[in-house]
TrEMBL record:
PANTHER family, alphabetized: IQ DOMAIN-CONTAINING PROTEIN F6, IQ MOTIF CONTAINING F
Gene3D superfamilies xref list: 1.20.5.190
A molecular-function term among this protein's GO annotations: calmodulin binding
InterPro entries reported in the protein's UniProt record: IQ_motif_EF-hand-BS, IQCF
Protein's name according to its UniProt entry: IQ motif containing F6
TM region(s), chain numbering: none
Amino acid sequence: MTDEWTLKTKAMDIQTLEKAAVKIQSWWRGNMVRRTLLHAALGAWAIQCWWRSMQTKMLEQRRCLALKLYTCQEWAVVKVQAHVRMWQTRRRFLQARQAACIIQAHWRWHASQTRGMIRGHYEVRASQLELNIEILMT
């Protein structure tokens, strides 16, 4: 019986040792898998952080480009408006000047026909204007 008993105990010890070895191996493999997964998760997290920062930079670049484009368009509109207003003002000024010249010419003709002739001369000195006017009535 002792031989059988020792064989049974040895067999049980071997089974116990095998179970213990399987547990140690599974614990070790679990640690290795968890370490690998942690390493992969940290790598993915680093890549995600980098990608988010790149997206933020690209978005900021797009915003700056859109702002520059908007600013250029606004300046172009302002310049076109200024040129149109200048052209309109100059046209009105030229029309008013032409009208004044026509009125002056008619007035001079009328004055010379109805009142006589106006003769005169002027001289500009340092700070004075000397004006001699002679009106002749016919």
